[in-house]
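Action item from last week, closing it out:
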Amino acid sequence: MNPDKPIDIPPSLENGAAGTDLLATYWPSIIGLAIAVVLIGLWIWRARRDPERRSRRVRRGFLWWTPITIVLVGTLALGVNTWVGYLPSVSSVQRWLSDTPQRPVVVSNKKPVQGSGTTTLPTSERRVTTSTSGYSFLATIPSTAKDVPSSGAWVYLPPDYDKPGNDRRYPVIYAMHGSPGSAADWFAGGRIDVTLEELMKTGQFPHAIVVAPDLNAGPERRTTEPLNFPGGPQIEDYMVKDVVGWADKTLRTEPEANKRIIAGMSSGGFTSLVFALRYPEEFGSAISLLPYAKPYSKGIVGNPEAMRMNTPTHLLRELPRGTHQTFFIGQDDGESLRAAEVINRDLREHGLTTTLRTYPGLEHNWTAARTMMPYGLVWTAQQLGWDKPNS
């Protein structure tokens, strides 16, 4: 199979349109600017007609300029958000604001559904998935990693996951945010659950679970990349051991490497390359969006050994030939494209299945990540030969 052949995706997912509404356009900013112009015009008109003393005009001016300033600041914020693409819809705002973790719910009217290991998932009279819609929720994943507290993760369960009697297991997409970022990013800005359900409907991707953990080593956001820092937080251990282990124990996953995708954007995209190359026994595929060539965190750059062990080109030299992994690299046409070209070339020369797709005109933001992800998912499913959703 030619890894560089064109990738077809549903029209609804083109140009990052998945799960967006008016917030993804500049119309809210235009409307806000128009309101500000009207308010300023009214203030000027009132000021010219006001015969009162200057002190009273100043007080009234303050009363006028306070809402005008609020409108202008809000308009600027809406414009920046549209460009970044982080909150493209009202529902994404709701997810970003959500901070109440829930236990993984699997509903069965007959008996509890067992996860692998000994965990029994709670039962309820209310199903949370349907035959066409999955369920997204915020969970807490315990940590055993040094200097990394237990942290939140957004999780998506596919349609009919909790259908009574369903004991099917599912592949998993582990989605890592960039920096700055949080667990909500792939569900708020990335709209990964909406993207996945569209691809399931067209038969281009199987029913799957998504786990998107917080990789900041706590609310203080002590790091900028999810790596093991010498003498500091061991975020890589948390991701590879705790997050993956929690998913396999708590959810009905297929716990094999060829049923796991490690994905991310920006620092998450870079780290998806690092983790896939370091742990081929854990991750069979990587979807690396907007990556770069080398780590930049202060605690890594200042340590030659840590720098070497967290650089994809070095890890590739240590990877045994004959490893069956796939790598999708998505990049804009900016300054990082050259690094992506080198990484793609080196991966292919090592005998790995890889492709680099360039998306001209996009920036280093969530609009780009949301645009690229469906291509990465479809390509990966094709390369792995994964079954269609209803097979």
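Closing note: Confidence is low (pLDDT under 50) at residues 105-124.
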